[in-house]
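name: query_chain
kind: protein
chains: 1
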Amino acid sequence: MSDVLASGAAPLGRAGPFDATVDPHGRASLDAQLGAALASLDAAGLRRRLRPARAGGRRLLDFASNDYLGLAADPRPAAAAAAVLAREGLGAGSARLIGGDHVEHHALEADLAALKRADAALLFPSGYAANTGALPALTGAGDVIYSDALNHASIVDGCRLARAGGATVRVVPHADVDALAATLGADAGRFRRCWIVVEGIYSMDGDLHPLDATAALARRCDALLYVDDAHATGVVGPDGRGSAAHWGVEG
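structure:
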């Protein structure tokens, strides 16, 4: 690991020229600094470690997976993916806007749009990338985001990026439509666009956001409603169309 340090690092004492715990200026090396930080996490019982899910040959019950439909172990999507890889090769080869756009992307986007009864869909490589990409792209100076207090970390990071682009971010009490309405009312006329950002299903607690009431509020206040439906698509609603379909507020 590199011992190049940011200026201003606190010295831990000087040592000889061959002491690996300090840099040439007597500052603690990066290894030493990070080691101390990890030791603090260990002492507090907060350090997390990777554990292979299938190690040791034991059969385990998994209560932490997001594989709600069991598709990860289904041989049918695995075989379909293998067939595409054999035909097209591994990886897009480039960003889609440059040379990595493939017909399979468009086919999947068309299927997803049809499932969601939307005009179009756009693929991202992960849910985290979707929120950190879409939120700062959609918002800008003069906008305000009302973010549910229990939104996923990817939404929190997306809101941070949106704030860097000039948007205002307000955190509102979890699934509390009355509190949200009061905040919107207090901000009336102050912002160019108002965005309400929620999750369809909150994965940690498993509760559904009351999208029927929130959508009605958004219409009354001329606000835009952004729903992360990662944990609801395929799980709730007619044909698995997600939380908007479940609450009858599609479109």
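note: Strands lie at 143-148, 168-172, 193-199, 224-228.
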